[in-house]
Amino acid sequence: MGRPMAQLRNTIALRLGLGATLGALAQLSALALLAVSGYLISRAWEQPPILYLMVAITSVRLFGISRGVLRYLERLVSHDAAFRGLERLRIAVWRKLVRLAPAGVPVWRSGDLQARLIDDVDGVGDRWLRGALPLASAVIVSVCATALQATLLPAAGVILGACLLAAALVGPALATWSSRYAVRATASARGDLTEGVRACLHGREELVAAGTDAKALERVLEGDDRLRRAHARIAWTAGLGEAAGLLALAVAVTGALGAGIPAVAAGTLDGVLLAVIALVPLAAFEPVLALPAAAQQTAVAKACGRRLLEITQAEEPRPDPVEPMEFEPNPLGGPPFIEIKRLSVTWPGAETPALHGFDLTVQPGERVAVMGPSGSGKSTLAAALMGFLPYEGSLRFGGVELAEYDGDDIRRTVGLCSQDAHVFDTTLAENLRLARPGAADDDLARALRWAGLRDWLEALPEGLETRLGEHGRAVSGGERGRIALARCLLADREVLVLDEPDAHLDAATAERVLRTAAAALEGKTTIVITHRPLPEGVVDRVVHLRAPVPTPRRDAPDNRLLGVAPPG
Amino acid sequence: MTQLAPQPSKSGLDRRLLHRARGASVFIGVCAGLGIVRTACVVAGAWLTASLIAGAFAGGRGLDSLAPQLMALAGVLAARALLASVQEAAAHRASAGVKSGLRRQALEQLMRLPSGKRHTGETAALLVRGIDALDDYFARYLPQLVLAVVVPVGVLVVMLVAYPPAALIVLVTLPLIPLFGVLIGLYTRTRAERQWESTSHLAHHFADLVAGLPTLKAFGRASKQVGAIEVTTGAYRRRSMSLLRVAFCSALVLELAASLSVAVVAVTVGVDLVSPHNSGGGMSGEAGLQTALLVLILAPEAYLPLRNAGAHYHASAEGLAAAERVFAILAETPEDAEDRQAAPAPGEPSNPNAAAITAARVMRTPLGRAPTIMFRRTVFAYPGRQPLPELSLTVPAGQTTVLTARSGAGKSTLMAALVGFRRPVSGSIAFDDTELDDLDLAAVRRSIAWLPQRPVLVDGTVAENVRLAVPDGASDPAVAKAIAAAHAPAATRTVAADGSGLSAGEAARVGLARFLLRVDLLDPPVLLLDEPTAHLDGDTEQAVLDSFAPYRDQRTVLIASHRAAVRAIADREVDW
């Protein structure tokens, strides 16, 4: 992770630095515009020949234009940088996720976490644009303004510097504190409210039928009341940050005049420059007054960054071996000989193994059912066979420990068909071709037939081109499982693990599908994981699995999408 | 990247939002009042600053004679700071109120609408996170918008009195800003909309890939997606930037107008000061300098709220987009079987008088004791799907019928139809020879206890969840009895709405306890149970069925289930 992140930072930092410089120059233009205008007016009052004023007049016009133009350029440069940065960040996160999936991150536990991951990446972009850049220009402008003021009148410079510093520290600190407080105060209320609303919407028909919808709604809206009370408490603290900056501005302006007026009287300051001294603070404070907002943005984005860091620094559950064995578990071709001895598998973060002391030998081409109640570690066995999890004991393919092989090599031989496999938001054909790119339409249709979806396919008006998934056609649980099965049959792996293939099917459909699938898998090794007895003749033999004695922790990573849920 | 590429807002939304949201108009009044006070502060501050500079420089006065003015300036500036704080607090309070109102309205409406194709998770996020995003609109954008109207007017009046040419310059340039904003907005509108679509498309694409990563990895396709992501996001960036190059022009016009007019004011005033005879006098002496400085300090203040409003406008886009979707929900009309007048069943001739006829029909009163339920050649269909197979079924009065059917046959649909949530496209449903359509739906629902496949859970205790059985309260002993009969977890156990805290089997038994409580209290003659024991192991299943036995007596019971133990208690078994 170190090198790509560093590269990313360098080029993006360069572009962002250019953006910050342009932003500061735009703000300095505004400052110069006001300062020179003040000078121009004061000098003009002395009524010198107008030629003496030409430089000031030209500068005023120049600064009037340059501020807008520089700001425009700054926006383009910094947005382009942010887009580029996010592009690379997305890919970096994806690369890491690929290595972690599915056991290493609990991110697949719920859709909410996935959405958060997406938001987190965007949040980092916001941190650059709305957090870091305003801060950089505020610092540059403050330093320049203080220097200018100090050159004209040291006392005024000290006052301005102190006030800017105070505003830059107190305002953002208050803003950060209040937004952190806000998050703390509202996060749980907001989460509860979301879940309550979801539950109410989900159970609408039940509640309406029972006549208890209003009652349930009131319960849910209690969460909204809590949220509202929290917001009311935050309201005042939110205003404080704003006020702090403006108070510092008040002190700076009053202080500049308080120092300047006696200096003019004493002759240490040219009266022409008094206006400059009074006006510089007004312009100098503009970027500093924007800092509370920037600080809030940074606070939010920091949380995003932290969560991303949790992912990018997460330990790989099963790192690929540095020098993997060449994967040739069966030199003659066909399925390998599988030998499992005293196999123990523990999920990352869990204290006790989900599967303990398991023995199994599978001959090439054999069909074995592993049967056991939920919690006995069946799905853990599947994850270990796929090379998703580390293990203790022995798990050999063709006499070589699975740990010696590269994970992708293992998965070219072993396939997993789970009921909750993801259906992508694309066409049915694309969803299937994932398993075998370039497969002909006939192959796809055949795989669907084997999976018992012939009638379903024929009923689709657009056939294989039907869009599935969230923005396409909704598929039922049973259909999803059979699409996953078709995908696995198409992939044509030598070893196929079927995880609860009959979960969402009625007995008759399940039996039909299992029999066709078994016929299609002739000659391949098949391991069927199930908690109910399978129909006669589908498998050659049945192995029973009992739950390990201690109950595993509840916070073990859950993986519903892959169906490799730990027990519990 | 929601904030980098804001969604173009539909015109008129702001007005609807302010109109619909209770308390918003009061808030605008408060903002306007604060704006007037703030304008006074701005003018007073500028006047005091100008007079101090002019007094010291032109008048040659020292700190002794100027001290009161300096104190006054400090006071005015401090007041302005406090005012900002009050404004912020008022804004947050108003915003919270508006959000709560909108949330309640939307939820109440959603409970009346058919669930249909709405994604519950997305809708919940819209109602909570989406509506919360309105903070940026109410607490930031709107107050600045009000100020953008109030402050320039006040400033212009003062400038007009003090030095008309400067007022003229501001008066000419100020309208340019919204004008160019609108022009550029119109020019980029279609592109911006397309860009917004591609933004959400990109986010969705990435989310889809992340969700499916375990699947991709299982097929060895995960690493290959990097190229695809690179291409998509690269194209997205180039399109975004070409749009932003134009879109940022409105900000450019704003900044240029603001700073150039300050420059022009400064130069005009300066030239007038140098040669006072040109402007007809008035611009000389201490008073002349004071006027010149006053105008110079005031000029940028006229543009400041507009600039701030522009900056906050983009941040408010997310909340506005959410508000838009909430209004779309509020505008929907209920059109499922629950509102029979509004929706004649498809296939029926749509008689313009049908509504009147149905309404005129006398609704029959509640079901008699243990009715016979008859489905006559009933066909259900979902849009875009093959219709479900035709069903003719009699559920005899006072008996327990177990319905077994192949997956996806529509058992749940059938039960939902009996409580009036689905309408058959053809055929009929009757209770004791009276068509369901002719019965008072509310009364029918009161006469039925329905246990859906996945009973709803709300935050609270098990007892509170069981109490959702009936609209009115239930006594503690009744709740305890139902919990015991259903073998549900202890009454005081806490449950979260997402089901955490309970296993699937325990959640199912909470639903069952709720069902039994309803049967106890309302004595409904019809019981519908959808897979009541799906998540239970054999022993629990038997125990639950045993305690259910007395409830079946003298009632028409329809159970959808595959389980052998359930089929064993059936008086009659029907395969669909």
From TrEMBL, chain A:
Cellular compartment(s): Cell membrane
Any one annotated GO CC term: plasma membrane
Top-level taxon of the source organism: Bacteria
Cross-referenced SMART domains: AAA
UniProt keyword list: ATP-binding, Membrane, Nucleotide-binding, Transmembrane, Transmembrane helix
Domain ABC transporter residues, every copy: 340-566
MF terms (GO), sorted A to Z: ABC-type transporter activity; ATP binding; ATP hydrolysis activity; ATPase-coupled lipid transmembrane transporter activity
Membrane-spanning segments: 50-70, 132-152, 158-177, 234-257, 263-285
Single GO biological process annotation from the record: cell redox homeostasis
CDD domains linked to this entry: ABCC_MRP_Like
Pfam families: ABC_tran
Membrane-related topology note: Multi-pass membrane protein
Domain ABC transmembrane type-1: 18-297
UniProt-listed InterPro entries: AAA+_ATPase (IPR003593), ABC1_TM_dom (IPR011527), ABC1_TM_sf (IPR036640), ABC_CydC/D (IPR014223), ABC_transporter-like_ATP-bd (IPR003439), P-loop_NTPase (IPR027417), Type_1_exporter (IPR039421)
Chain intervals for the UniProt region annotation (Disordered): 549-568
PANTHER family: ATP-BINDING CASSETTE SUB-FAMILY B (PTHR24221), TRANSPORT ATP-BINDING PROTEIN CYDC (PTHR24221:SF653)
NCBIfam families: CydC
Protein name per its UniProtKB record: Thiol reductant ABC exporter CydC subunit
UniProt organism field: Glycomyces lechevalierae
Name of the encoding gene: cydC
Automatic annotation (TrEMBL), chain B:
InterPro entries in the record: AAA+_ATPase, ABC1_TM_dom, ABC1_TM_sf, ABC_transporter-like_ATP-bd, ABC_transporter-like_CS, ABC_transptr_CydD, P-loop_NTPase, Type_1_exporter
This protein's UniProt keywords: ATP-binding, Membrane, Nucleotide-binding, Transmembrane, Transmembrane helix
Protein topology in the membrane: Multi-pass membrane protein
Residues annotated as transmembrane: 21-54, 66-83, 145-163, 169-188, 246-267
Protein name: Thiol reductant ABC exporter CydD subunit
Source domain of life: Bacteria
All copies of domain ABC transmembrane type-1, residue ranges: 34-318
Domain ABC transporter positions: 373-574
Xref: PROSITE patterns: ABC_TM1F (PS50929), ABC_TRANSPORTER_1 (PS00211), ABC_TRANSPORTER_2 (PS50893)
GO biological process per UniProt: cysteine transport
Record GO terms (molecular function): ABC-type transporter activity; ATP binding; ATP hydrolysis activity
GO cellular component: plasma membrane
A matching Pfam family: ABC_tran
Subcellular location: Cell membrane
PANTHER family: ATP-BINDING CASSETTE SUB-FAMILY B, COMPONENT LINKED WITH THE ASSEMBLY OF CYTOCHROME' TRANSPORT TRANSMEMBRANE ATP-BINDING PROTEIN ABC TRANSPORTER CYDD-RELATED
Coiled coil: none
Organism: Glycomyces lechevalierae
